[in-house]
């Protein structure tokens, strides 16, 4: 539906890639994106528009990242962007680029959308991608609590 990788691919890729990150002391960051008020979009404009919004978010995300980065559909309206060889400061720059590209998109459409983003990065002692996802989820929760449409 979206053109994004699925969770199974994320788990397979990250299992092998985390070995490299640990061995070579590489940077790895993760963005967890969540559409703000997605239920309202579906209820107001219909599920077809909701599907379009999800597809457009993936397109915008892909245009905002490098070819080596991964966009993964994590859940209904949640997406992960895995950023190999990227420290947390540069990951936040990528997040802001996504926000800017969504703002440009919203200027030309009758319906608009926004996202909130939680961030995390590989830390010594992380055993799996789930450790990064858990921290990004905590950051995402803070972003939602801070009023949405922001990155933490």
Question: Any overview of this molecule?
Answer:
The protein is an alpha+beta fold and about 150 residues long. Helix content is about 55%, strand content about 15%. The chain contains 5 helices and 4 strands, in the order αβααββαβα. The chain has helices at about 5-25, 40-45, 45-65, 90-105, 130-145; strands at about 30-35, 70-75, 80-85, 115-120. A 4-stranded antiparallel sheet has the order 2-3-1-4, with helices on both faces. β2 (about 70-75) and β3 (about 80-85) form a beta hairpin. α2 (about 40-45) packs across α3 (about 45-65) and α3 (about 45-65) crosses α4. The chain starts with 6 loop residues before the first helix and ends in a 7-residue tail after the last helix. About 35% of the residues are buried. The mean pLDDT is about 95.
Detail the topology: elements first, then pairings.
Blueprint: H1 7-24, E1 28-35, H2 38-45, H3 47-64, E2 70-73, E3 78-84, H4 88-106, E4 115-121, H5 129-145
Antiparallel strand pairs: 1-3, 1-4, 2-3
């Amino acid at each position: 539906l979206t053109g994004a990788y699925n969770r199974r691919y994320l788990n397979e890729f990250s299992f092998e890639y985390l070995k490299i990150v640990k061995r070579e002391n590489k940077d790895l960051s993760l963005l967890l994106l969540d559409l703000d008020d997605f239920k309202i979009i579906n209820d107001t404009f219909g599920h077809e528009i909701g599907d379009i919004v999800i597809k457009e978010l993936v397109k915008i995300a892909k245009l905002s990242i490098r070819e080596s980065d991964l966009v993964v559909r994590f859940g209904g309206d949640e997406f992960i962007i895995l950023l190999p060889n990227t420290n947390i400061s540069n990951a936040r720059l990528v997040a802001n680029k996504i926000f800017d590209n969504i703002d440009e998109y919203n200027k030309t459409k009758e319906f608009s959308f926004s996202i909130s983003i939680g961030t995390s990065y590989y830390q010594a002692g992380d055993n799996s991608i789930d450790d990064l996802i858990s921290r990004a989820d905590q950051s995402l929760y803070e972003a939602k609590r801070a009023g949405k449409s922001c990155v933490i």
